[in-house]
Amino acid sequence: MTVLGAPLVNLNQHWLSTLLGIVALTLVMTFAVMFATYYERKVIARIQQRLGPMRTGPYGIMQAFADTFKLVAKEDLRPATADPVAFELAVFAIFIPAFLALIAIPYTQDWIVSPLPLSLLYLLAVSGLSFIGFLMAGWGSDSKYALLGGMRAAAQLISYEIPLILAAIGVVMITRTVDLSAIVVFQHKVPLIVWQPLGFLIFLTASIAELERQPFDIPTGESEVAGGVFIEYSGIRWSMFQLTSYVNMYVFSLLGALVFLGGWEWPFGRDVGWGYQLLLTLAKMSIFIVFYLWVRASLPRLRVDQLMSYAWKVLIPFALVQIFLNGLVLVYDLPDVALLITSGAGAAALVFFIYRSVRVKPRRPLEMVANGVAARSVV
Amino acid sequence: MVVEQDAPEIVDIPINMGPQHPSTHGVFRMVLVVSGEQVLDVTPHIGYMHRGGEKLMETMDFRQGIGYADRTEYLAQFSAELAYCLAVERLMDIEVPERAQYIRVILTELNRLSSHFMFMGAFGIDSGLFGTSFTYAFREREYIQDVFEEVSGDRLMYAYFRVGGLAWEVTDNFVERVHEVLKSSAQGIQDLDDLLTRNEIFVARCQNIGAFTAQQAIANGLSGPLLRASGVPWDLRKDEPYSVYDRFKFEVPVGHYGDVYDRYLVRLEEMRQSIKIIEQALEQLPPEGPIVPEKMPRRLRTPPGEVYAKVEAPRGEWGVYLVSKGGDKPYRLKMRSPSFCNLSALREMTIGQYLADAVMILGSMDIVLCCVDR
């Protein structure tokens, strides 16, 4: 089976190496997620002038293990009125796509479980599957909060999928390939963030929404729907949801690092050996992760209507503008700098638009009354 | 026209928010009828914390009642104590010494600061912030509570005011300690201001929701920052000064829109004004002097009569209505708690807003459930 002239599945590879890769990835990711939870707690604690976990082991490094064992040992509860099939399968409907995405990511030049020629397309397609799981969890829990959360999640994930893919299309137009490895190689001299600042901004925003992290954590909003779709889950199922959300964070961070920051290629080239390449990829990935954590600790949550209008009225038009600009530059064969200028102007316009949209009407400042009621007649 | 018989019926679902919901600020329960995300109706349910406090206070003598006043309003204890003491003092016609008056004002205003810090922290969480405002605010609250602990010996239930004055003299380094705390509080207010006030998302979430006009606010009996945010410059400290408030220069911040954002701004400005008041009070504080009147009876007995004393608590007008038939206990005691009266406007404010706004509106009221239910 082929798509766009390229084979969909790479058949040249031995099945055993693929299997080994998958097992290794799953194990590594589990520990990586445990580290991420610990790291997140520590970073956010530092931002909030706290210490974070300190009691389990030196500097609390065993906290993630303690949490994991506690969650795994908990009783597996299911509400009596829940739909058993939807309730229990929802976990896997979210869990599997997240891990599926990992196999197509080139960590170094050679470290890739399955080198797919359509890996970017595959990655975006697979990561778009998880909304089904959220709907199943929301509907199957037989809880109004979960239902609200599930509906919010479905609306949000579908809406933000579009700007995400449109931003990726802008990149694909320039690189003329959907193979992630080839996209990374393309950035040999200059990372794509330089040519596509607007696309990068859109990707960054949409990826936060896809991850359902602050300020887009509307489906799980702790202060409104109190956990949303996860409200009826506990123990191992709940921890699998958490595991998935952190795996997704790694996936989107890696994607951003590969597509926009030049992955393992920029700035040292491909001849530095896999060790440095891996370090470079991970370093660029951690930039994204720290950004996500920082944003989480410093921004409040958007309201659901603001979230939707932000996707449909701001991000998608701007993403289309980016594609149009790329098309202009490519059709008329303008120099590369034209990409930077047009996209940079677009990015500036986006930032200005967001800044302006909140301050449409200048509000009157507070009035200071010095002498009580006498100063102003009331009513 | 063909009417489909099997078409699913679209119903508005009631959602039970509370009493265990994380953002109802205690054991408050509201039943929201929602159509999608929009709130069609709200039914507040209160009373989970009802302990019959007013009746209990009728069984206590006038000194014991002070301790119970703390327990009704656990975020602005000194305001509650002050209102109760003022009521008894008025009934007994006691003149409180100057020094005690000033210390009362300093502590009450510090308490307003710590209460508003609590609001800032909790409101940040209501708006979806991951606890950053909360830790910022609680850092300052801790410093203020340290002073309260040094003065009264307790961190929550101070019971430091007495009928006629204070329980005992403040610590020797009281003035320096308050100055220190004011310095850190001013920085804390600035930190919260930087974190929230101009944050695009926070502004987008707060503006134009739960707006009340001045007429609506007065008709619903609102008081405190909610009333002032609607544009009514009514502050008991200015308009009907009690204690020594008429000796300080400060301003009353008044909003124009009466929405959640204005309530936040009004509280932020009130904190700055509180710092001004405390600074003036520290300057004017007599360094020596009695803290209880010279001729204070050992046993507190009031003449028969009734009295209503009110103070401007952080949440609004905190009033104590006291009827005495002589003797050492109140015959009837009624507390007008601002949280309870303000909460009555919740339904009118919330209907038509989004579900997420209901949380913000409730948060902007800054209710204390102990004070609502008593």
Number of domains of chain B: 1
Query: Shape of chain A from CA axes?
Result: globular
The run of helices and strands of chain A is EEHHHHHHHHHHHHHE
Strand portion of chain A: under 5%
Which sequence of SSEs, written as H and E, runs from N to C of chain B?
EEEHHHHHEEHHHHHEHEEEHHHH
Alpha carbon gyration radius of chain A: 23 Å
Biggest interface and which pair forms it? A-B, 47 and 57 residues
Task: Please name the CATH topology of chain B.
Answer: Cytochrome-c3 Hydrogenase, chain B
Structural class of chain B: alpha+beta
* Beta-strand segment tally of chain A: 3
Distance between the termini of chain A: 76 Å
Oligomer: heterodimer
Tally of helical runs of chain A: 13
Care to describe what's here?
The complex is a heterodimer of chains A (379) and B (374). Chain A is mainly alpha-helical and 379 residues long. Helix content of chain A is 64%, strand content 2%. Chain A has one domain. In chain A, strands 1-2 form a two-stranded antiparallel ribbon. In chain A, helix 9 runs antiparallel to helix 10 and helix 9 packs antiparallel against helix 12. The N and C termini of chain A lie far apart (76 Å). Chain B is α+β, with helices and mostly antiparallel strands. Chain B has a three-stranded antiparallel sheet. Chain B is built from 15 helices and nine strands. Chains A and B meet through helix 6, helix 11, helix 12, helix 13 and strand 3 of A and strand 1, helix 4, helix 5, helix 7 and helix 8 of B. Strand 3 of chain A pairs antiparallel with strand 6 of chain B.
Keywords:
heterodimer, A: 379 residues, mainly alpha, 3 strands, globular, B: 374 residues, alpha+beta, Cytochrome-c3 Hydrogenase, chain B, 3-stranded antiparallel β-sheet, 15 helices, 9 strands
Could you give a quick summary of the protein structure above?
The complex is a heterodimer of chains A (379) and B (374). Helix content of chain A is 64%, strand content 2%. Chain A is mainly α.
